[in-house]
Structure formats: structure tokens, C-alpha cells
Amino acid sequence: MRLRQNAAGTSGSLGKGPYDRLVLRGVTVIDGTGAPPYGPADVVLERGRISAIVSAGRNTDMTQAGQQVDVGTDSWELSGHYVLPGLVDAHAHIAAAEQGPDADYSYRLWLGHGITSVRETGCLGNGTEFTVREARRAAANEITAPRITPYAAFGAGRSEPFRTARDAEKWVAQQAELGAEGIKFFGAPPEIFRAALAEAERLGLGSACHHAPSDVARVNALTTARWGLGSIEHGYGLPEAMFTDRRVQHFPSGYNYNNEHDRFAQLGRSWRQAAEPGSRVWDDTRDELISLGTALDPTFVIYTAARDAARARGREYLRDYAAPQAWEFYQPNPANHGSFLYDWGTEEEVAWKENYQLWMAFVRDFHQHGGLLTTGSDAGFIYNLYGFGLVEEMELLREAGLHPLEIIRCATANGAQLLGLHDTGTLEPGKAADLLIVDEDPLANLKVLYGHGHLRMRTDGSLTRVGGVRHVIKGGVVFDAERLRASVREQVSAERERLGAAAPFTP
User: Fold this and answer.
1) How many angstroms separate the CA atoms of 168 and 191, rounded?
2) Is the separation of the CB atoms in 414 and 402 below 8 Å?
3) What is the rounded end-to-end Cα distance, in angstroms, of the chain?
4) 70-112, pLDDT tens digit by residue?
5) Which residues pair with 61 in a beta bridge?
6) Residue of 181, 270, 152 lying closest to 221 (CA atoms)
7) Do 429 and 54 contact (CB within 8 A), yes or no?
8) Is residue 242 a contact partner of residue 282, using CB atoms and an 8 Å limit?
9) Residues contacting 147, CB < 8 A, separation 6+
10) Structure pTM?
11) Could you give the CA distance from residue 370 to residue 9 in angstroms, rounded to a whole number?
12) Is the dihedral of CA 201, 367, 454, 482 positive or negative?
């Protein structure tokens, strides 16, 4: 991918605030802790923080118990609305030059879906220095963007592989000096991988790993968890940790890792080769991962095209929100990572459907036994679009068997915990004012969080769109989420006109 050389977000922040005092009146609160919703409540924001949540029979600020919240510089009447903590995308990528007109494109789609924090896992499309600079600008509210936690890709910027453990340690230290807050690994020789991971931990950096098939035979997910890995990304490395009758996945003759059709087709056959659900190996692996404190960030959504390519290509929001750069990048092309659907048939999709059943079973089991589970989208690839992808990830956790309250906790409190954002993730007095406002109940239907809303029939038989996040607040700065999404639609239309590109599905 081409790194962005220009600064993004030069127009500054489109938000208002933080307010001296803002009261959100009459809302139903879903606080992200796993507690059931309650309301009507008044949520009081003061200078970027939640100062009180007052509700009949319940007051979450004991210092103000019994006091009426009836004085405020600004007050919104929001009867019938739901307030949730801002969502956390724990596996995100800022749009590279091939994936969108600018970085703002991804920022506005994230905020437009109530996503107030993202972990940039690898900074691959734009580079660590660019991402760190953007993270600082976002923190200062100089740009319209979520909080950004930058993780540098292991080995980025080097012209050759690491030769020694000491070289790897020096590189990790350099990334910390640049401002990276974590390291994303893909794989490396064991002694180099372990040394780099230890150095990251010593320096207080986070760590994540996409256990690439090229290295997983030597270092699987359980190995890295024992070394102190923070999170396992996607599903790579987990089935390989549970092989009982082999040490290497059964790759067929002619397999070529550089051929992404081969790579993704065989990835869809990995879980069936692992230990069975409920077996001793399965349970022991689950329990050890939990005891080690390693999180799972499965990003189910990024692979859904593998089980139904036509459905992924036809996601209805792509017509209005997919920039021509993104749409072109999605098209089958061996030169673009993830654009592997150039001969994807029934056999591949059937294998992936079974793969999902087993993978989801492990993730559900891990979660139910107390493991830290988060939500990430890995958007920008495989017909998966920024903002929309995280909502679909939440739907996929519902498919996996989690309760909607558990899913919201995964997408808020758990994500904040993984990213080390101790000041956000739940709606509690004293926390940063990171939240979203929606006028439909997401516990009844997660689809109301999608930017294009949810299609519903009226009593007279006509159709209407409902839902869509109304407002998003980051650190007390209020953004009109509907306006942010409208600005993306306008930008997409302008880009199509500029490039002479048709809308998706248009001949």
C-alpha cells in the first residue's frame, strides 16, 4: 500500500464542546457493564466528563444523591432515546490511499457509527509516524476523529528480516520512541519473536498477533500467550494450538501461501482439523488462555465473504458509502491483499460455514468461562466498510450465542480494557464523556446501529428507515452523527464524479 504523505483532517474538528454543563434528559441508559438498561435518566456531562447519572430510584453519583439535575447551560430532551458508551473498534485500519479519498473518510464513518476509540493494528497503510501524529491530533480535538491507539507492525520500515534478538529489541524501542503504544506481530523465528514481545512488555507497550500460517507451525497462539501476548487477532493460531494428530495443518499438494485464494481457502479448513469442542485439549487450551489473561479479538466480520461472497458484495450500504477507491480495491485482484474472490465457489463457502460454527463455538466458550473478548472489524478489505463493519461484528457475536448486553460490553468496556483506556468504556460518573445516542433499542435489534438504518414497515404498509446513531460524544465534544454520514455520502458522490466511476452494481 502507498503511505499517505499528506496530513489528514486539515479542516479541524466538526464537533461542538466540551460544554461546561450538558444534560441529556429522559434517556434509557445501557452502561456497558453488562447491567440491564434503566431509565428514564438524566446524564450530566461537565467539561468532558460524566458528572452524574440521575434516575428515579437510582443515582450513580453518591456525592449528588437526592439532588435534582435541573440547572444546566444546555439541556436536551431525549425521551425514547438510548445512551450507550462509545464503541471501541479493537482492530481498525485508517484508510490508505488505495482504500479511500483521505483518512477523514474512515474517521467520519467510525464516528458516524458511535465509534469513539480505535486501535490501529499495524499502521500498515499509512505508517507509524503518520498514525501517531493523527492520534495526537485526535486527542487534542484538532481533527474529527475517534481516539486512536497506534500499534506498529513488527519489522515495519526495515529492508531485511531481523537477524538477532537484540536487533528486534532495538526496533521495538525505536517504535516506542516514535510514539507507538503497541506492536502488532505476524510471526518471526521464536527467539526473535519472544525477545521482541518481552521488550514490548518491559516498555509498557501493548501487543497483538495475527498468527500468519507461514510461522504458526513454530509459534502458535498458545505459545505467544505463554510469552505474554496481549491479544490474539482473527482466528489464526488457535486451531493449530489444538492439533492432536498432526503438528502442521494439512495443506494440499500445490498450495502456495502467496496465492491468496489458496491461503483463504485452506484457512476455512483449519478448525475441522483441531480438537473437538468439549474435548480435554479444547478445554485445556481455553482455560490456559483465560488464566494467562490473553484476549481474543476475533474479527469475524472480515471473513464473512468467504462463506457467502455474493452477500458480501451486495451489502446495501456500499452503494452510498463505498468510495470508488474502496470499491476498486475490493474487486478480485491478486495484487490487493484480501481481494481473493476471483474463483470462489461452493466448496470454499461450505468449508467456511463449518469453520465459522467451530470458531464461534470456541469464542463463545472462551467468553462464557471468563475470557476477555473484544470487537474488531479489520475494515477496508473484502467488501467490509469502516463503521458498518463493527456493527456487523456485533451481529456475528449474537450469531455466536452472546446476549446483546454481553455484546455491548465486549464492544465498549472490554475494548477499552484491552486498549488500556481506563477512563472510558462504561457510563459511570467520573469517566470521560464518550457515548452514543440512538433513538431505537439496540438490544432488540442491533441493526439500528448501522449508518443506513434498518428497514421497517409502517402500519399502513409503507416502508421506512429507522435507527442510525443520532449523536456521538467523544470527550464531551458532540458530533452530529447523521451529518457526518451525510458528509461521507457527499464525498463519495464527488469522488465518483471526479474519477468517472460508477456506483457499485451499476453497469
Assistant:
1) 10
2) no
3) 28
4) 554 689 999 999 999 999 999 999 999 999 999 999 999 999 9
5) none
6) 270
7) no
8) yes
9) 116, 117, 118, 135, 138, 139, 421, 424, 434, 474, 475
10) 0.95
11) 40
12) negative
